[in-house]
Amino acid sequence: MTLEELENIIRHSEVSRVQFKERIDDNYKIGAEMVAFSNSRGGILIIGVKDKTGEKNPLSYEELQDTNQALSNIATHNVDPRIGIETDSVSVDGGHIIVVTIKEGINKPYKDNKGIIWAKQGSDKRRIVDNNEIAEMMEECGTFIPEVSSVDATIDDLDLDTFKEYLLKRFEPPLRKNGIKPSDYDAKTLDEIISAISRNITLDRLLTNLRFMRPDGRLTMAGLLLFGKAPQLVRPTLTAKCISFYGTSIGGSRFRDRVNDADMEGNLRHQYDTIMSFFRRNLRYVQPGEEFNTQGVLELSDIALSELVMNALIHRSLVRPAPIRIFILDDKIEIHSPGTLPQGLAIGDIANGTSMPRNEQLFYHANFLLPYSGAGTGILRAIDEGLKMNFKNDEQTKEFVITIPRKVSNEPASPIDEPVKELSNGKSNQAEELSNLQKELSSEKSNQVTNEVTNQVTNQDTNQVTNQDTDQVTNQDTHHVSDQGPIINTEKKLSRKDLTGKQKDILNFCSVPRSALEIMERLSITNQYYNRAKYIQPLVEAGFLKLTIPNSPTSPNQKYVKVKRK
User: In 3D, which of 381, 209, 403, 419 has the Cα closest to residue 302?
Assistant: First the structure.
């Protein structure tokens, strides 16, 4: 280090990676500082500068020799496990200043000779006692792999339909070899699929071999997240919070829409679908060309958003007790993912496409459940889609934040298009107004339903805003609207072999209850009576889907869920 570089460091005073000491007068305290640097991102210890004033008090040549020896002894005997340090001396007027470089450790957590774990906090240090923080340190070094750690859940907590779908994609070659083609998948049970993969294996043994279950019968974290019915019942923070705010600050209390905890409850694929549905119903659709009748597209690339959502779900810290947070504001989108970048990875590396998976099990196996390549190039694909992003690796909040700018719309929000809701969960009169409006629409006797857009505002428990379109239905259609019930399809019932690709996609999507609007968003078409009659009602009549509120088919809270078959 040069004198100029030293002077520049001193001018900036003590920060999280710089510590001043006038002399080594307490080996234990110096050892604790080395521990804190090793457990954090490393740093430098400068000997010969007063920590209160930044005034230099140079060491003599004899002090220089003694201090170097003392530092070596401290790194060996006062830090467990021992660490290597680099020392340098800078000549100044009146003597020497010692600069000690302590690198981030590769065997965390480090302890002092009293067994205490320290980490840096600003210019000071703090004692670490929380097991989650200790586990996070061990995860960074690879001495602890949270994905394969056991959780308080068993095979009864798995969604076996999702596991079956995973097996069909994961083991497609051996299944074909044993005579099971994709056209046979629906008719085959899970046991038959497993037997085709290997004749001498059981479900329990397969789950154990794939590291989704421990030998004692308890699921691993990866197994729970990939295939669990409700992982949040075991680990409540393994979820995502999604809120669309008015304005440009997440400190506001007024919001357009948010996803309820109950709606987000589910495995990774369910969380992915729920987050993407949140984006699609809260972002604007714009005309890509000059033609008025061209189909609108999302203001931000759907492909790019999909990549960022999958990145957040797959690479989040599994030991940090915090949810993923996604905020839509008028001028930007923020995606907050728990955990800073893995050790050795910098923001510049991310932008250049360098991948270092935090959760290798999820990174590999989610490839068979989510629409990504598993190559670790999601950020690059988002950039290729024209998405502008800012990255922040926040050491204070221990999270990685992606900010995506939005073009601020100049169009004022109308009351019917933008219902205001309060985070205090206060009551809204709009739900009652909506119910009355829907009753009027359902009792209409004319052949034409007005093309008004009605806003569906659910009760104070769900706090979710959705938009439901009604469109024109004519006498020439083969589908009609019943005054007392749901849309009726007069065509013959479907058999499983008659299902189209879109209908199969609907069934997969409805592994958890979905509203008609969510299904239409999934298909990227409008939520019209005709489209619901075309895509949803045949599945209900054929017994593939069932209503969640069968006694009230026209309920505004009606949803559809896949009928599980053995």
Answer: 381
Reading the block at residue 202, the tokens are: 């059981």
Rg of the chain on CA atoms, in Å? 30
Banded model confidence at residue 403, pLDDT cuts 50, 70, 90 = very high
Which single residue is written with the structure tokens 């009549």? 541
Q: Domains plus CATH for the chain?
A: 3-129 (3.30.950.30), 159-218 (no CATH), 240-405 (3.30.565.60), 429-562 (no CATH)
Between the alpha carbon of residue 486 and those of residues 13, 173, 281, 494, the distances in Å are: 71, 43, 24, 18
pLDDT at 416 over 90: no
**What pLDDT does 371 receive?**
86
Q: How far is CA 501 from CA 364, 505, 507, 508, in A?
A: 26, 6, 10, 11
Beta-carbon count within 10 A of 475 CB: 7
What's residue 409's pLDDT?
Answer: 63
**pLDDT at 106 exceeding the cut of 50:** yes
The whole-angstrom separation of Cα 320 and Cα 301 is 30
Of 147-161, 285-299, 410-424, the least confident: 410-424
Please calculate the CA angle 357-361-365 and round it to the nearest 5 degrees. 110
- Per the CB < 8 A criterion, the answer to whether 370 and 272 are in contact is yes
Instruction: Determine the length of the chain.
Output: 566
Name the band, by pLDDT with cuts 50, 70 and 90, for residue 378: confident
- Quote the percentage of the chain above a pLDDT of 90: 47
Query: Is this prediction's pTM over 0.70?
Result: no
Please answer whether residues 244 and 255 qualify as being in contact, where contact means their C-beta atoms are separated by less than 8 angstroms: yes
CA distance 512 to 107: 43
508 vs 369, 371, 535, 540, CA distance in Å? 11, 13, 14, 14
Q: How many CB atoms lie within 10 A of CB 192?
A: 13
pLDDT tens sequence across 224-267: 999 999 999 999 999 999 999 999 988 877 888 989 999 999 99
Q: What is the C-alpha to C-alpha distance for residues 247 and 127, in angstroms, rounded to an integer?
A: 39
CA distances from 92 to 60, 61, 97, 284 (A): 11, 12, 7, 62
Q: How many CA atoms lie within 13 A of 547 on its CB side?
A: 16
SS3 percent helix, strand, coil of the chain, rounded to 5, is 35, 20, 45
Cα–chain-centroid distance for residue 243?
A: 14
